[in-house]
Specification:
By secondary structure, the protein is an alpha/beta fold. Keywords: Glycosidase, Hydrolase.
Length: 320
């Protein structure tokens, strides 16, 4: 089965920690105003520190020509664990391969957590989708402070976790969940409708020379940025995992929202390991109903790589 979405415009908040693949995802989403009504970007510490993820989100907004979308800064550290970052992948500024500067437009006033609470409490029932591209700290803190916000949430679509693929920060854990497993646990237990795009699927949707050439052939500012960003960061992934191309993890969330028929998966019960030890941050996916627990997430298992890159290329062509 595939995830089903109504054809109407998706009211969307993107929670993000840019990060290389986050910036590609943001350009992808902001280039799709017919389908995605992006209400705000909310930033969190993750790939790099909060001040840098917040600046990079504002850069992505500027590059997409979408300064109308506010950016709210959120949590600067995980709920419980010590902060960790991924500068070894994303570079010291969180965006390698392109020049970094201070964007023209600043942050919106107020915290991302307050913004989430106020917006979701005031929203029509189950009307707002949240794309979670980094650690889930902001939404978890909002849920803990005001559990009633679930009333406004239509669906939470997460890039995170790993099951059959194995982890990318430890043998078991994917980075976003390892960075704040307690936050992921709070979201999993909240009862919201959840979809997970894990390394199981993102490692099947890989760049290739031909796919990058097609993006480069658009020859606009956005396409040049995406090619430079990806060329700089995918080499490490290719070497580390012995794969033929690089994944663009977070952008799969946007593709899923735009064209869910590119993906397939099933409803399962997901638990995150928050115990200290080698499995810390692991997502345990109960395929055989061994936990005897009701399914709490739609786990995406596979995706159409060619369809993904066709859609990404088509959307980047719309930008300057």
């Amino acid at each position: 089965m595939t995830g089903a979405h109504a054809a109407q415009k998706i009211d969307l908040i993107i929670d993000t920690d840019p990060g290389v693949d986050d910036v590609v995802a943001l350009l992808f989403a902001l280039a799709s105003p017919q389908e995605l009504s992006v209400r705000a970007l909310t930033t969190v510490a993750g790939n790099v520190r909060l001040d840098k993820t917040s600046r990079n989100a504002r850069l992505a907004r500027e590059w997409a020509g979408r300064e109308d979308v506010p950016v709210y800064a959120g949590a600067e550290k995980p709920m419980v664990r010590d902060p960790i970052y991924a500068e070894h992948i994303h570079g010291m500024e969180g965006l390698s391969g392109v020049p970094i500067y201070e964007p023209k437009k600043g942050l919106a006033d107020g915290s991302a957590i307050d913004y989430l609470i106020d917006t979701l409490m005031a929203a029509r029932p189950h009307s707002i989708t949240i794309a979670m591209l980094g650690p889930q700290t902001n939404l978890a803190l909002a849920l803990i402070r005001e559990p009633g916000i679930v009333q406004g949430i239509k669906e939470v679509v997460v890039m995170g976790g790993a099951h059959l693929n194995g982890g990318n920060i430890t043998p078991m854990a994917e980075f976003n969940l390892f960075a704040d497993p307690q936050a992921a646990e709070a979201v999993l237990k909240s009862g919201v409708k959840l979809t997970y795009l894990s390394l199981d699927v993102t490692h099947r949707i890989l760049t290739s020379d031909a796919r990058l050439r097609r993006i480069a052939g658009l020859n606009n500012n956005a396409s040049r940025l995406v090619v430079d960003i990806l060329n700089d960061c995918i080499k490490a992934d290719m070497e580390h995992h012995g794969i033929a191309g690089g994944p663009v993890h977070d952008a799969t969330v946007i593709a899923y929202l735009l064209k869910p028929q590119l993906f397939s998966g099933r409803k399962v019960s997901v638990v995150v390991d928050c115990s200290e030890g080698p499995a810390f941050g692991q997502t345990i996916v109960d395929e055989g109903d061994g936990l005897k627990a009701p399914g709490n997430a739609f786990w995406v298992e596979s995706g159409d790589a060619e369809g993904f890159f066709d859609l990404l290329t088509e959307r980047l062509a719309r930008l300057q």
